[in-house]
Amino acid sequence: MKKKLLTILLAVCVCASTVLCPIVGGGNVYAEDSTTDVEDNIKVENGIKYRISSNGAYLIGYENKFDTKPVIIPGTLQDGKTKVIEIAVNVFKQCKAESITIPGSVKIICSWSFQECEATSITIEDGVTLIGEEAFIGCKNLRSITIPGSVTDMDGAFLDCTGLTSITFEDGITSIDGFGGCSNVTSVTIPDSATSIDGLAGCSSLTSITIPGSVTSIGDSAFYNCGLTSITIPDSVTSIGERAFCDCSNLESITIPDSVTSIGGCAFSGCGITSITIPDSVTSIGDGAFNGCSSLTSVTIPGSVTSIGYNAF
């Protein structure tokens, strides 16, 4: 029995060793190791290094990181048929290129691929589906970005891009995420395809935003510590997450629609609101939901509310 178990464990280890790093959804996204493919080989074109497999080309290296000339990643290699499908971890980290273009043939941009690069312009073409966590973290010279509608996952992708002033999400995007700590953003465009908002925490220069009627959920810490002065929540929204508007000290006016059923813990803690009317659709108010709202003088709570958390007010 012990011998059989050892054999199984060895088999698992061998299988695990054939993959350098797994592709992980909803968090860090690492480059797939294609060394198990018998067709694999390495190719360098115009200073860009690729690993070739039967699936396509994995971009794994860049030789000219200290060159300021624009980086235009090709959709296909010079053979005219091999598509570039993935950009590996750290490939363009601290790259000094003034601009970067990523083609739609690329499906995955791995975590930290462009960390702290100095580009003022980054173009992501339609076709990219997944942008790994912190893929563009600390790109402080970037001024504006457009996220194509093909992207389905980009958790924390643009953290601390403090030079950003404008973010546009194109139609097709369902989740608004990935821009925490972008303290100079003043404009965010959200399409009617969006159903949830997360990941705009720390956008302290963002004073206003229009939430379309397609949005049903405002997630945890969605607008934490933003510069919002007023907000209109559409009647499509059913839940407001924990810390959703926490520490928005300039937020003086807010209307909660009668579609909302729950208000999360600390959702409006530390806001500047002076009065609030809870609609009769709400059944629960979380811990500390309005705690620290020092200017709050008037609160209306309907009979529908069956649970009020600790220190809610």
Number of strands: 23
Structural class: mainly beta
- The best one-word shape is elongated
First-residue to last-residue Cα separation = 62 Å
User: Fraction of residues in helices?
Assistant: under 10%
Strand content: 15-25%
Which consecutive residue ranges, at least 5 long each, have pLDDT under 50? 1-26, 30-39
Total of helices: 1
Q: Mind summarizing the main beta sheet?
A: 7 strands, parallel
Strand numbers in spatial order across the main sheet: 12-14-15-17-19-21-23
Looking at how many chains there are and whether they match, the oligomeric state comes to single chain
The ordered string of helix (H) and strand (E) elements is: HEEEEEEEEEEEEEEEEEEEEEEE
Radius of gyration computed on alpha carbons: 23 Å
- pLDDT averaged over residues: 89
Give the tags.
313 residues, mainly beta, seven-stranded parallel β-sheet, six-stranded mixed β-sheet, 5% helix, 23% strand
Topology:
Elements: H1 2-17, E1 41-45, E2 48-53, E3 56-62, E4 71-72, E5 84-87, E6 99-102, E7 108-109, E8 121-124, E9 130-131, E10 144-147, E11 166-169, E12 175-176, E13 187-189, E14 196-197, E15 217-218, E16 230-232, E17 239-240, E18 253-255, E19 262-263, E20 275-277, E21 284-285, E22 298-300, E23 307-308
Provide structural commentary:
By secondary structure, the protein is mainly beta. The protein is built from 1 helix and 23 strands. It has one helix at residues 2-17, and strands at 41-45, 48-53, 56-62, 71-72, 84-87, 99-102, 108-109, 121-124, 130-131, 144-147, 166-169, 175-176, 187-189, 196-197, 217-218, 230-232, 239-240, 253-255, 262-263, 275-277, 284-285, 298-300, 307-308. Strands 12-14-15-17-19-21-23 form a 7-stranded parallel sheet, with no helix packed on it. A 6-stranded mixed sheet has the order 1-2-3-5-7-9, with no helix packed on it. Strand 2 (48-53) and strand 3 (56-62) form a beta hairpin. The longest helix is centred in the first third of the chain and has 16 residues, at 2-17. The chain is elongated. The protein starts with a helix and ends in a 5-residue tail after the last strand. The relative contact order is 0.07. The model is unreliable at 1-26 and 30-39 (pLDDT under 50).
